[in-house]
Write the structure tokens for this entry.
Amino acid sequence: MKLNKNIAVSENGFIFNPVSGDSFSTNPLGQEVIRMMKDQKEKKEIVKAIAEKYAADDSTIEKDLNDFFQMLLSYQLINEHE
Amino acid sequence: MTKLSYERPVIQKLNTGMMNKFGTRTEYAPVSHIEGVAVKDLIAKYGSPLFVISEQQIRRNYQNALRAFKTRYPKVQFAWSYKTNYLNAVCNVFHQEGSWAEVVSIFEYKKALGNGVPGNKIIFNGPDKSEEDLTLAVQNKSLIHIDHFDELYLLIEVVQKLQLKASVAIRVNMDTGIYPMWDRFGFNYENGQAWNAINKIMSHPELELNGLHCHIGTYMLSAGAYATAAYKLCDLAINVKAKFNKTIQYLDLGGGFASANTLKGSYLQGSDIIPSMEDYAEAIASTILNFGFKSADLPTLFLETGRALIDDAGYLLGSVIATKRLSDGRRATIMDFGVNLLFTAFWYNHKISPAQDFSHHTEDMVVYGPLCMNIDCIRESVNLPLLSKGDQVVVHKVGAYNMTQWMQFIQMRPNVVMIDTKQEVHLIRNKESLETMLRYEEMPAHLKQVNL
């Protein structure tokens, strides 16, 4: 799962797309997911990492991640999602 | 190791230049308790969705309203508007406080009798009163408010047959400067119809014209309209005295006082624009007091306000069934309650609060109900925390009309509980079951067998 090139991510969760000029904000878990994406982590690994740290089951995390990736796609921050 | 609490990841596009001077607070502050009772405990015991009524809030509202009027006018009598909420427990809180009953059908009339209201303390309004209904009302010495000439002539036949006198009033409709003007109920003031009705009543000694009644609208945002209404009723009363030497005993200004709910399409919150109870009281009381009645002839002021006394005493608790994305990327949250239970969602933007803690991150979302029907929408656009399946919410100010106008469509109606003044919870209406519904159905013999 890769963020598009040129996408700038600040430490406190702000995201900037220089191609479209759009800015975005994320909540703490959103920031973690973005960080893991920048570290080239696969979806399965991201689910596992979240499940180890947070009180949620795998299927809930997977559903929410799918929704999150769908939004990244619609905001043109990633090019493909599954 | 204890795991951290989970809140799903979200990303939101930042928009500039969208500031709104009418901006409303985002509702992420949880409402975890109602009158000191935990929402999660209520749902665990009585199920979700669940209507909750605060007895304390009803009594507080009633006492505030009574104070507002009694400090301005010497003779005031409230009558509880049954159609607003006719659960017997609710009615009896009002009756314990001193309210009479105001009913608009024989069903409500019999409910009031069953609740222990004496017949002569029941105001019988509405356009639908049969000969049988009128007979009962005359025998019980109820206050019959006549809606149209057909009812007036029928009542004359009834009292002549019974050889009894009836206590009557006429409902008067009028132009009070507000739109829409309600002219479908009662007799019109401006075109002389009301006066024709009075003449007819006064020509029948078996009819005792004791009152004049109006109900000028609902969710009235102008207290001044009540001053106009009171003025026109006073004018009729003074003229009845002048022409027939008959003292009108009471003026009934009806109801229609607004609650603090926010109407759809309103830029400002309801609580910021509605008149206070004192505003309504001042407009009505000062008009009557200044009209010129002799002290002995000063009429009693009857009030039938419903919505303003019960709306904020009612809550609807519910749970999230699912969340999803719409085609345009908006979040949709599906609740286990819809317009079947929350009929007032058609005209109010009800405030919805989460019942558990969330971070300050919120999403704009559409809130749908569970009905498989496109119009089942509770809020078209509302900012709420990151709700997930199973989260609980509290809908505020739902005490008026929802528990009388609710629909048994697809789903069955849920439990209703009342929290008393000592924070004890009482079940006041049992949830419906399949058996409740099937009790009223009949199957023809030839349709009993199905072979598929």
